[in-house]
Amino acid sequence: MTDIHLSDEDCAFIEGQLQMGAYRTADDVIRAGLQVLREEDEELRRLIKIGEDGIEAGRYVTFEKVGDLKKHILALARKRQDARSAPEHEPSRTERPGGRL
Hints:
This protein is an all-alpha fold. It has one domain. Helices cover about 65% and strands about 0% of the residues. The longest helix has about 30 residues, at about 25-55. The mean pLDDT is about 90. This is Type II toxin-antitoxin system ParD family antitoxin.
């Protein structure tokens, strides 16, 4: 097995996790960290695949100038913000109990 050398900061973090009772052993702390790393790596690979598939299918945007890219990003951000701040759906007359106002 490969020797593992940890910084003082990493050792202190592991020790803190053990003292809090979050993990029983240092091996458990390392194992949990590796699990998170594996999950993040899998998610990144999944997102890369989605991007590659999108490009292959022609779902991409090209820009002539950097400023156009900035405008596009800001427009997407505004659209998302608007969607988040949109009021909840108000029920129509027929959706309200008794069908009356």
